[in-house]
Amino acid sequence: MDRTVVLITGCSSGIGLHLALRLASDPSRSFKVYATLRDLRAQGPLWEAARSRGCPPGSLETLQLDVRDADSVAAARARVTEGRVDVLVCNAGRGLLGPLEAHTAGAVGSVLDVNVAGTVRTLQAFLPDMKRRRSGRVLVTGSMGGLMGLPFNAVYCASKFAIEGLCESLAVLLPPFGVHVSLIECGPVRTAFLEKLEGVTGGVLDGADAETRHLFSRYQRHLEQIFREAAQDPEEVTEVFLEALRAPRPALRYFSTESFLPLAHLRLADPSGCSYVAAMHRAVFADEPAEEPTSAAPGGPVLRAPPAAAAPQ
């Protein structure tokens, strides 16, 4: 029986690495995994973990793939020896933290290039064959930052909101071709994501006004607390990817945690946005003053933000 061919972007660490290992070591031995990395010099931890987990020979291969470079994406596709990809996992991503006015144009462009344009390049490379074969799954690593605005994550959230629109548009179009798109919406996950965040240095922050610096300091403390108390292990999140991959009729969205869903519901319950803005401000900044919402859904409660508020994946 032919194995299911899975190609995953962004496998040097975090969710991508753990998902590649989970599939390659699956007891069914039904997956052939291509774990792709921007820099193959970073593949050591993946292979060490693969040996410790006993991944069978031939279940895992690594390929160089930089989502910022269309030629790199095309070269990786050409190296898939089976000549097809059954499941494409768009996982490569980058974060950017800090006051918007402190970001350089290069940092903003880099996040948008990886998170948005990079996902588009990857889909453009692999979707045509899936459509021709009238079969395929696309799983995209989403974020609560694509469902709600988070303070000091303006550019990251902009990129993830764009991914929501991209995937939802494709999800409407592709079922007649036998291709299904699913977003795996993640909250905070214990990965190297925080360490890899592009952000602002103290020197740049010195150019921000004092009140913004104070709020940013409060947000950093909030973020550290959330990751200590509410972050999920990546192994837990990979099981949600497996659920979407194996579903006979996959949904558009799967959630790795329900902790942020009250806020997502609040955004819909009060389309003016006033209730959400006030609730999120209270959750993050606690004793900082915020205007109370002037409107809310008729008869609907003003919900408090859950513990995992304002912590991007």
TrEMBL record:
Favors the reduction of estrogens and androgens. Uses preferentially NADH. Substrate binds at residue 143. It catalyses: 17beta-estradiol + NADP(+) = estrone + NADPH + H(+); 17beta-estradiol + NAD(+) = estrone + NADH + H(+). The lineage of its organism: Eukaryota, Metazoa, Chordata, Craniata, Vertebrata. Pfam families: adh_short. Residues 296-313 have a biased composition (Low complexity). NADP(+) binds at residues 10-38, 66, 160. It is found in: Cytoplasm. Residues 289-313 are annotated as: Disordered. This is Estradiol 17-beta-dehydrogenase. Pathway: Steroid biosynthesis; estrogen biosynthesis. It comes from Neovison vison.
